[in-house]
């Protein structure tokens, strides 16, 4: 059975999420000289937890999670909000934003495969084709931005860890959204990630005291936009469409991150990176294709 076609609001939510997450790669790089990976993750999650908590209070809708849902939310919070942020921030201490985005965005491939296996979504032909084409585009972007000279192996490993924890977090978040409100799941995940990063409290206090206004504003932005806002719009979209299809749309993030890098850091991408960005967009378009099913051709079938 095909999933219902997403509404315009879902597409808007996807667009907001993609833009916010692409900007995060740039802001993380810009604030990396002032905050270590763990401290930046903790500070970002403190801001995000406070803002998302306000949203939950305003909504005044609370559904008590079951034991299974609590386990899913805890896993989602620790892996995606906690481990992912620490790994990503630390990776960008030694890797440029474009290369990091390329590596992290193998995550949607893992999401699509995991959703097909563990969430029963299956792996439709066009999703597989689109994912493969988009992944080729990401690889081209990586080579075009210097991924052929990866340099710091630790940074590469941490970016891969970020990709794996991102994918695992989505697969744990998806079933929790079936019954629980989006805002509640997102806030709980963020708060749990905050608890998981509390060991970096000492680093955050020291580095926050020494950070210039630019660094503090960067931290606040990461907590408010890529965390509180974008994770909310992501949860909204994830509750209304298959995880595999939604994950593939994030292949647009690397080319956007490169464009933002040109604007902010005056980094002109290699022609190969531009080609890769176009290939990514083609892959996303292919993943959205649906097979034509002529229901009325079947005896006894009725239109809906």
Written description of the protein model:
The longest helix has 26 residues, at 213-238. This protein has helices at residues 8-31, 37-59, 67-91, 97-104, 107-118, 125-144, 153-176, 182-196, 201-210, 213-238, 243-249, 253-265, 271-287. It has one domain. It is mainly alpha-helical and 304 residues long.
Furnish the topology, listing elements before pairings:
Layout: H1 8-31, H2 37-59, H3 67-91, H4 97-104, H5 107-118, H6 125-144, H7 153-176, H8 182-196, H9 201-210, H10 213-238, H11 243-249, H12 253-265, H13 271-287
Helix pairs in contact: 1-4, 1-10, 1-12, 2-3, 2-8, 2-9, 2-10, 3-7, 3-8, 4-6, 4-7, 4-12, 5-7, 5-11, 6-13, 8-10, 12-13
How much helicity do the residues have?
over 70%
SSE string, helix = H, strand = E?
Answer: HHHHHHHHHHHHH
Weakly predicted, low-confidence segments: 293-304
Percent strand equals: under 5%
């Amino acid at each position: 059975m095909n999933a219902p076609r997403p509404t315009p609001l879902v597409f808007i939510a996807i667009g907001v999420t993609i833009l916010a997450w692409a900007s995060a790669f740039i802001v993380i790089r810009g604030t990396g000289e002032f905050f270590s990976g763990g401290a930046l993750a903790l500070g970002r999650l403190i801001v995000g937890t406070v803002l998302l908590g306000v949203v939950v209070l305003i909504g005044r809708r609370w559904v008590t999670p079951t034991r299974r849902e609590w386990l899913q939310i805890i896993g989602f919070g620790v892996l995606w909000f906690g481990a992912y942020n620490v790994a990503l921030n630390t990776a960008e201490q030694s890797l440029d934003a474009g290369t990091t985005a390329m590596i992290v965005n193998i995550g949607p491939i893992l999401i699509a495969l995991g959703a097909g296996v563990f969430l029963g979504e299956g792996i439709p032909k066009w999703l597989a084709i689109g994912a493969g084409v988009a992944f080729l585009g990401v690889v081209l972007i990586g080579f075009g931005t210097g991924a052929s000279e990866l340099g710091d192996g630790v940074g590469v490993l941490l970016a891969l860890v970020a990709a794996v924890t991102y994918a695992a977090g989505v697969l744990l978040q998806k079933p929790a959204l079936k019954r629980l409100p989006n805002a509640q799941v997102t806030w709980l995940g963020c708060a749990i990630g905050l608890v998981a990063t509390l060991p970096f409290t000492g680093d955050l206090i020291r580095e926050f005291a020494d950070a210039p206004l630019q660094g503090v504003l960067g931290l606040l932005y990461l907590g408010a936009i890529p965390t509180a806002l974008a994770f909310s719009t992501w949860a909204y979209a994830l509750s209304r469409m298959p995880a595999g299809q939604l994950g593939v749309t994030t292949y647009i993030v690397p080319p956007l991150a490169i464009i933002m890098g040109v604007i902010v850091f005056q980094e002109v991408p290699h022609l190969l990176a531009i080609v890769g960005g176009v290939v990514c967009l083609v892959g996303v378009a292919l993943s959205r294709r649906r097979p034509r099913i002529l229901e009325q051709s079947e005896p006894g079938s009725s239109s809906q």
